[in-house]
Write a structure and sequence with these properties.
By secondary structure, the chain is an alpha/beta fold. The chain has 11 helices and 12 strands. The strands form 2 sheets. The chain has a 6-stranded mixed β-sheet, sandwiched between helices. The model has no long low-confidence stretch (mean pLDDT 96).
């Protein structure tokens, strides 16, 4: 059987390492996992060209919304979040799933950050929408402040919040220091984008979940940890969303989490040293 990760850019993806480690540990010698550069316009023809030996696909940016549109069936969570990071072969078609939410929830719970009473999200993209769903899943009921670099482009995360039934308030990222006095700050910003907030984040006393996994730690993560705050990086999220993908694609409930973790950490260490 075959599976792969698609996106653009995708060359840096850690997914092939994680999935391959799972297949090895599970004894799935006839399974393979590839990597394909693919933009939004290329996803439909790519899917049309896949044979029955394809079990599933992992989707990264910019394909999560398009994957949801092309799926023959979509789980409710993916619909409410507004994006799918996983397509699984189902009969003659494709079922869309969102495992990012499970990845975030599990990563936070693993670090003991499992019951925030208040939260602020930096960024307003697809990962921010998944973070909102995860926060709701952790029991958060208070409104979440979403800080966007351009508030006029926050419509999709606001729409997702409406489908999730969770109140949000949108504010400019430039005003971030006014909104950091919460239990948990979630940064869905790209590497380096939150560096300027490292000091204010550390002083706020908030815990930090930063979706960046390489290079790690980010300046913000380092400062928050130095001040005694709890920090969760992007690798645990990536790991646990991949665990959920392996479960969906193989149909097996028992997935070798620690083998996948070890393989991912080894690859990140190799990249950091090169």
């Amino acid at each position: 059987m075959r599976a792969a990760v698609l996106g653009s850019p995708v060359a840096h993806s850690l997914s092939p390492v994680l999935h391959a480690a799972a297949y090895t540990a599970m004894g799935l010698d006839d399974w393979s996992y590839g990597l394909h550069e693919c933009g939004e316009e290329g996803l439909a023809p790519f899917l049309a060209g896949l044979g029955p030996d394809w079990a599933g696909l992992s989707l990264t940016m910019p394909l999560k919304r398009r994957a949801l549109e092309l799926a023959d069936r979509a789980e409710d969570l993916a619909v409410r979040v507004g994006g799918a990071n996983t397509l699984v072969r189902e009969g003659g078609g494709w079922a869309a799933h969102n495992t990012d939410v499970e990845g975030i929830v599990t990563a936070l719970a693993e670090a003991g950050v499992d019951a925030p009473r208040s939260a602020t999200v930096l960024g307003a993209g697809a990962t921010a929408a998944s973070a909102l769903a995860a926060l709701r899943g952790l029991g958060l009921t208070a409104p979440v402040t979403v800080l966007a670099r351009d508030t006029s482009r926050a419509d999709e995360v606001v729409a997702a919040a409406g489908r999730l039934g969770h109140p949000v308030e949108v504010a400019p990222l430039a005003e971030a220091e006014r909104h950091l006095g919460v239990d948990l700050v979630v940064s869905s910003l790209p590497s380096g984008a939150a560096d300027g907030l490292a000091g204010p984040l550390a002083e706020s006393g908030a815990d930090l979940f930063d979706v960046v996994y390489s290079p790690w730690p980010t300046a913000a993560a380092r400062r928050v940890a130095e001040r005694g705050g709890r920090v969760v990086g992007g690798f645990p999220m990536l790991l646990h969303q991949a665990v959920a993908q392996v479960r969906l694609m193989t149909g097996r409930e028992r997935v070798p989490v620690e083998a996948m973790r070890a393989a991912g950490e080894a690859e990140l260490a190799r990249r950091a040293a090169s």
